[in-house]
């Protein structure tokens, strides 16, 4: 299974198709939008956009199409982006956890999606660097999955294979210093870095077609397919390489996880966070400058998980 650098997931054809399908799914979840930051084609288009860990680049290409006057750059460890792209879109192979010294505070929109599991510390590696690289008034938007499964009616219990699998994957990600959790802390991290007008929207991603609502049923069916496609690769990446389980052991345990994923009696869901915030004008930034350099040297601050409205929209 080909992989790139410190990233524990593959970048093969199966993964490329999974990422493209996941892109469509998230657009449906966000009511056919690619972003929640306050951009509009006529009144307020972005001018210089960076998509961090762009994957197959679908988001970047669609943003370039929607905003023809913007320059859109996508960076990723893997060169899995298409060659035929709009003239205002380009891709570069770069490790985003390294220094962003080429960025000169001229960007006005930075975006991440499905990147927990890529960084040792998302606050230091991405959020503080994004703050420094944005021009005053620019926006950072993070769209990230909290890789934990929940159910509101007790139909998923802690002894069930799906729950145990998720717990093991999260534990392995923390041990390998690529934590898959962090989405719920994003709002606090953006505020700690100095962003203002920070907003958070949390969506439920049903694990299969269990909801009655047709829109959520469709989203659940797409998410089920996505999990089924990625299950083996995620498991090998973390459980084999990090927890030392043999491939045979993993395959045996996945039989029951697969049964849970397709079981409509289990009303489980993941939580998908969209958090966006604005870099303030320079006069507001002075008091924050010290805290940013402290953060960069001391790691992410402990922030209480904000209470947010969990929406089935
Ligand atoms: C789950 S994919 C998400 C891709 C894309 N953002 C999307 O939503 O479709 C995560 C991507 O992060 C990339 N990645 C992982 N670590 C990275 C790093 N240090 N620098 C740049 N890209 C990285 C991987 O190569 C992969 O393409």
UniProtKB/TrEMBL annotation:
Gene3D superfamilies: Vaccinia Virus protein VP39. InterPro entries: SAM-dependent_MTases_sf (IPR029063). Coiled coil: none annotated. Pfam families: Methyltransf_23. PANTHER family: METHYLTRANSFERASE. Belongs to the methyltransferase superfamily. LaeA methyltransferase family. This is Uncharacterized protein.
